[in-house]
Amino acid sequence: MSVAKIGIIIGSTRPSRIGPSIATWLKQNLQTADLNVDIIDLAKINLPLLDETHMPSDGHYELKHTKDWSNLIQGYQGFVLLFPQYNWGYPAPLKNALDYLYSEWRGKPVSMVSYGGRGGYQAALALSLVLRGLKFNRLSNNLEISLPAAELDDKGQFKDPAKSLAPYKFDVRQLSAEFTHVLG
């Protein structure tokens, strides 16, 4: 088997977000000899609100940022969507990034890693409908990471990311095995 490329898409662009530290931990624990994992930060991609004239399902992109986004995404065999729960939903930048493309997502395996005070179940539930519409291959291993206030500092960041995320290590290993199996 060749090495598969997996992209962890950080779905929040808030300046105070905890997503990058979770993404770094996920990458370290998801990557294996069979999986090469990259972090794709939507704050750095900086897509404007969907501004293409044509429907994404047509595959006719006119704007450079859309073509660049399409080319980037086409280089991956699977994805982990990492996002917080905002008012029982997922962040608008993630929805926007998904809506820019269509065929680039089709059939690719995807896992959701939500986080929040109670893990982000409602956000994952809402996003699962979008993933179905985009024809992703939704994996069975999805994580809901709870953020206990006692483990966060006064800026909302982990005091000790490795310790706080340790309870999810087995689940990430299971996800890694599922990606390897599906892409093998």
Q: Per the principal axes of the C-alpha atoms, what is the gross shape? A: globular
Count of β-strands: 6
CATH topology: Rossmann fold
Q: Tell me the Rg in angstroms.
A: 16 Å
What would CATH call the homologous superfamily?
Answer: Flavodoxin domain
User: Major sheet, described briefly?
Assistant: 6 strands, parallel
CATH class: Alpha Beta
**Given the helix and strand composition, which structural class is it?**
alpha/beta
Strand content: 15-25%
Average of the residue pLDDT scores? 96
Number of domains: 1
Our measurement of the CA-to-CA distance between the termini, rounded to an integer number of angstroms, reads 6 Å
CATH architecture: 3-Layer(aba) Sandwich
SSE pattern: EHEHHEHEHEEHH
Helix content: 25-40%
Uncertain regions spanning at least 5 consecutive residues: none
SS field, number of helical segments: 7
Written description of the protein model:
With 184 residues, the protein is an alpha/beta fold. The protein has helices at 19-30, 42-45, 64-74, 92-99, 121-133, 161-165, 169-183; strands at residues 4-10, 35-41, 78-84, 109-116, 137-138, 143-146. The model has no long low-confidence stretch (mean pLDDT 96). It has one domain (4-183): Flavodoxin domain (Rossmann fold, 3-Layer(aba) Sandwich). Strand 1 (4-10), helix 1 (19-30) and strand 2 (35-41) form a beta-alpha-beta unit. The longest helix has 15 residues, at 169-183. 37% of the residues lie in helices and 19% in strands. Strands 1, 2, 3, 4, 5 and 6 form a 6-stranded parallel β-sheet that branches.
